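Quick one: structure for this chain?
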Amino acid sequence: MTISYTLNRVGVLMTPEPGNDLEVEGVLNPATGHTPDGTLYLLPRLVASGNVSRVGLAKVELKDGVPTGVSREGIVLAPDEGWERGLNNAGVEDPRVTWIPSLGRHVMTYVAYGPLGPRPALAVSSDLRNWERLGPLHFEYQPSLDTDLNLFPNKDTVFFPEPVPGPDGEPSYAMLHRPMWDLGWFRDGEGVHLPAGITDARPGIWVSFVPVSMVEDDVRNLVHLRNHRLVAMSEHPFEERKIGAGPAPLRVPEGWLVIHHGVTGEQPQGFDPTTQKAVYAAGALLLDASDVTKVLDRTAEPILVPETDEERTGTVSNVVFPTAIEQVGGVHYVFYGMADSKIGVARLDRSS
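Got it. Here's what it folds into:
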């Protein structure tokens, strides 16, 4: 099996607004969604001075059916809760939004940059404007891993748009995520703690599940994840440092298409991306529709690499970071961060 999908640039969709203090350090890594009337919206990460991030809302402007710009409509999520703020940091970062029809809700996973660094959290909405926080994610203890996943910082969380078979056979909502095993950031000398059976310390893509029956009882159970499984580790040169999931998985005839990022280069310890000398490129995985823990195929070469000025120069140079995918007029468009400064859009094409 060969992955026959490519990304082709359309252009720059959003840049920081001059004089807007909330965007002075960049607009990047957006989520997307359609409101009940079918209007396409962008939910960009807006970075204010001091690296404080909020989630905005902007209507996507179309020309001949192609996304070409945005019209801003304000802020929908800010670091207002205590667990989203530290004494010297704050932020709600890198939202991923999945419309889940069976729930009748948009499900937003985001990174709460709080007292203990980046932690994944969840909010839901029916209209993209009003978001109800369900709180930080909780990973149920799994004895076979010989560790507590809640100990670790975690990013790149995103839900599948429909229930899938869980490892126990029960129909489940599934979420991709990327734990980071090095706890040296938290306590000097603590170092790397790997789960049982894992020998590669690089961050990879995992999946966890919530039974549909639990969520039908109470949507707040979406934060209670179980049956954690490793999906994919770095394999190819463009993924040398780490990989992480991007937009919500897209159902295609072959299975589930996951557009992900791979990282090469130098990455000093800690969470300040401006200290990195790395390259972020986009690749693709194909997961089995009947078992989303199984990778059917993956791209050995990236499908999008930093090439334009906007992608090569910015707050963090040499970054393309896909985070959202939407269909417009029968065409799928992928929205991505450009050098942690701007937002671009590319067309997802099938090459055969």
